[in-house]
TrEMBL record:
Residue ranges, compositional bias (Basic and acidic residues): 301-312
NCBIfam families per the UniProt record, alphabetical: ksgA
Chain segments annotated as transmembrane: none
Stated family: Belongs to the class I-like SAM-binding methyltransferase superfamily. rRNA adenine N(6)-methyltransferase family.
InterPro entries xref list: KsgA/Erm (IPR001737), rRNA_Ade_Mease_Trfase_CS (IPR020596), rRNA_Ade_methylase_Trfase_N (IPR020598), rRNA_adenine_dimethylase (IPR011530), SAM-dependent_MTases_sf (IPR029063)
Protein name according to UniProt: rRNA adenine N(6)-methyltransferase
Organism: Urochloa decumbens
């Protein structure tokens, strides 16, 4: 479709939506298409049937507080406001869109149910909510879902329209090549279901990718402190970040260079100098925090040279990244522990995305047993 034709189509679509509620204030949310910012993911969902379907599938209960990230001109917001929800809190980065959605709520006579925060959803503190229903900007899909899942929020479910490939990864089963660590972690605290596919043709302007609606239903209201007795959720999250961080970084590089890329084995990942040294630092901190040595006792915890000085200064210097003050023997011993855990789990030649949560947890238990900490 030519730019001129799609501009025309977009203007018609936005006007059609505007006039369905109130012609008098239509211009308030009729943001001219040529001003829609693709870099902010401003692709408006315009098919009323799909919009209705999303709200129906979100199963909003009377009295619910709804969070919407990225309301745009309010196509979804108008329906959320008309639902049994008690209130809708929208967070929108673009002040023009924030003004448009506020005007639309006013035209519908539903302003009393809406609060709009203008700001970056990754930075603002969300108000309390029961359900999140959003057609989210795809550029922030991963961090936003991580914020919802592992932030301090208590909510029932999030019904989100995301890029189709992302949705497939999020619901991916163990052993599925496209599974990522967000999916692994999401499964610990939530059930993730694919609800329906939505064609890119339903958006204005038409994006380059298709979408899917996913439901993230929290397993419990509270974020669990531990994934199992003795293994804190934060320890697990950091462990999976190390396992899959390389994977995501490499995938991004592969996409950029359009090169074939093979995921690294756990053995290769944990041999990396910067990873080993970071774990060394974290493990020392964990031991100091917990007042414990590695299970099995002994003094094979690598110690850095500053321990002999005892004036606290060296300790402070080594606290962040000044690894040079760790003794060489200590570092070697620590690396041996990492290798030992991998070998005893028989996972050093395995690739993280091929492993189940159980295998990964088994490995983490062995790391912790050897005094290797991730948090
Ligand atoms: C895909 S559009 C969805 C618009 C509307 N909900 C719809 O379905 O038609 C995404 C919206 O998110 C907004 N947005 C982009 N990045 C954002 C961020 N970091 N925080 C909050 N809103 C953001 C954009 O300005 C845009 O209005």
């Amino acid at each position: 479709m030519s730019r001129a034709a799609s501009t025309l189509r977009a203007r018609h679509a936005v006007r059609r939506l505007s006039s369905s509620s109130s012609a008098s204030s239509a211009e308030a949310w009729d943001v001219p298409f040529h001003r829609l910012q693709k870099q902010r993911g401003q692709h408006l969902l315009t098919n009323p049937r799909v919009l209705d379907d999303i709200v129906r599938r979100a199963a909003i209960r009377p009295g619910d507080a709804v969070l919407e990230v990225g309301p745009g001109t309010g196509n979804l917001t108008a329906r959320l406001l008309a639902s049994p929800a008690a209130r809708v809190a929208a967070v929108e980065i673009d002040p023009r869109m924030a003004a448009a959605v506020s005007a639309r709520a006013a035209a519908l006579g539903l302003s009393h149910k809406l609060t709009v925060t203008t700001g970056d959803a990754m930075e603002v503190e969300f108000p309390e909510f029961d359900v999140c229903v959003s057609n989210i900007p795809y550029a922030i899909s991963s961090p936003l879902i991580a914020k919802l899942l592992f932030g301090a929020y208590r909510f029932r479910a999030a019904t989100l329209l995301v890029q189709r490939e992302f949705a497939r990864r999020l619901v991916g089963a163990p052993g599925h090549g496209e599974r990522n660590h967000l999916a692994t972690n999401a499964r610990l605290v939530a059930d993730v279901t694919l609800l329906m596919d939505v064609s890119k043709a339903e958006f204005v302007p038409v994006p380059g990718v298709d979408s899917s609606l996913v439901e993230i239903r929290m397993k419990e209201e509270d974020r669990p402190a531990e994934v199992e007795p003795g293994i804190g959720l934060d320890e697990w999250l950091e462990f999976t970040r190390v396992c899959f961080g390389q994977h995501q970084l490499q995938q991004r590089r592969r996409r950029q260079k359009k090169k074939r890329w093979k995921e690294k084995t756990l053995g290769t990942i944990f041999k990396k100098e910067e990873i080993a040294m970071e774990l060394f630092r974290l493990s020392r901190r964990a031991e100091e925090r917990d007042g414990s040595g590695p299970v099995g006792g002994g003094s094979d915890v690598p110690r850095h040279d500053g321990d002999d000085v005892g004036d606290g200064k060296e300790e402070e210097d080594c606290g962040e990244v000044a690894y040079s003050c760790f003794s060489k023997e200590g570092v070697v011993a620590f690396k041996e522990r990492i290798a030992g855990a991998l070998q005893s789990a028989r996972l050093d030649k395995e690739r993280p995305s091929r492993l189940s949560n159980d295998d990964l947890l088994r490995l983490l238990r062995l790391f912790i047993k050897r005094g290797v900490h991730f948090h």
